[in-house]
Amino acid sequence: MKTLIRTWMGIGLVHYLCGVSASAATLLFSFTGQITEKRGRDVSVFTGEVGGEFTGFFSYDTSSLNESRSSSGFYDLIDFKLDGRSLNVSTGPEIPFRAGVFVHDGGDSDDWLEVRGFYLPAMATVGIDGFNDNGAISIWLFDSTGGAFSDGILPEAIDLSQFDDTRAIGPIFGVSPFGPNRDEGLITGVNLIPEPRALALVMTGLILMSLKRVVVR
User: Fold this and answer.
1) Are 158 and 188 in a shared domain?
2) Cα–Cα distance, 168 to 72 (Å, whole number)
3) Are 37 and 144 within one domain?
4) 55-80 residue pLDDT tens
C-alpha cells in the first residue's frame, strides 16, 4: 500500500513538473564585455573602470512575441541587469521609448538584435551642463550580411561571430550621445542559461529511479 501511495505521489509530481516545463516561456541569457567608455557625472551604468569587465543578464517571455512585420519581432522583458543594476523600468511620458527585446531580419543585409533598457540615475542629469540623456542602455548586435536571423524570432543560440558590431551602448536616443555623455562597451560573450525545466526533468528522473528501487524491494 505504501509503495502504491509513493508511486502515485511520484506520478503526480512528475505531472506537475511536466506542467511547469510545458508552461515555461522564459529564456535567460547572460552576457559579458569590456568597458570602453563611461558616462560622466558618476551616472554610468558600469561599476568598473574603462578597460575593466562588465557582466549582466536579460530574460524575456517567448510567448510575448509581437511581430509588426514578418521581418521584425518584439518581446517583453522580464528582467535586464548590467553590473547588478536594473535596466527594466516602466515606460511612460518621461520615457518615450519602450524597453524590450527587438529582433530585425533585414533579408540580405542589416540583421540586428537590441536588448533595450533604461538606467534612471542617468536621466536625472538631463539639462545639466548640456546633458540630454534619457537613460537608455542597450545590448546591440549588428550583422551587415543578413545571415544572423531568418525572421523576427530570436533564436536560443546567439553566435557572436555572426555579427560585425557587438556593443553595450547608451544612450542611443539622446541628442548629444557622444563624449562623456555615453556608456559603451564591447560585448565578448552571450550565453543561454538553462531554464528550470532542465532541472525539473533531472529531478523527475531521480524520483522515478527512487520509486523503482522501492517497488523492487
Assistant:
1) yes
2) 21
3) yes
4) 999 999 888 887 665 568 888 889 99
pLDDT above 70: percentage of residues in the chain: 63
Residues 35 and 52 in one domain: yes
| Same structural domain, 184 and 215 | no
Residues 147 and 209 in one domain: no
149-172 pLDDT, tens digit per residue, is 888 788 888 899 999 999 998 876
Structural domain harbouring 18: 1-24+195-217
Q: Based on the fold, state whether residues 68 and 138 are members of the same structural domain.
A: yes
Task: Report the predicted TM-score, pTM, of the whole model to 2 decimal places.
Answer: 0.72
pLDDT in tens, 175-200: 444 445 688 999 999 999 886 554 45
* Number of domains composing the chain: 2
